[in-house]
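Researcher: I'd like a structural prediction for the single chain below. Treat it as a standalone chain; there are no partners to consider.
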Amino acid sequence: MTNRPGGPLALNTSYLGKWFPGAEPYEVTRAAIREFAEAVGDPNPLYHDPAVARAAGYPDVIAPPTFAGIVAGHAYWQLLEDPEFGLDPSGAVHAVQRFTFQRPLHAGDELWTDVTPEAMDTVAGRDRVTFRSMVRSARQQPVATVLTTLLAE
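Model: Treating it as a single chain, here is the predicted structure.
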């Protein structure tokens, strides 16, 4: 661990740059996509109607782009639950999230995600960590990259 003004950095910097495979795949369902789209108030028929999605060339309804944050969260959550990692998720908030897609996520996807803590530091007395999550299909094809920065007390 490194020090910061006023005390030690709680984050365990030995995790930096190490890849952690997701423990299990994330199954994308129509219901999860619909609930997410409703929660963010997006009525786009590509997220709700399989016939519209198929007519647009997709195998099923697609997910709103920020849905990939849920998939990434399942992967990095394993680190947040690890007491050796040193970040208390109860006080954590998303500071930044960036997405790069090779294709949209869609219902029926079985997605595997590997995650690495890419950066750790302290800002205004709060620990900050950035995770890089690499989302891939069951066939190991890249689907998306998600960069998530969390701030925690």
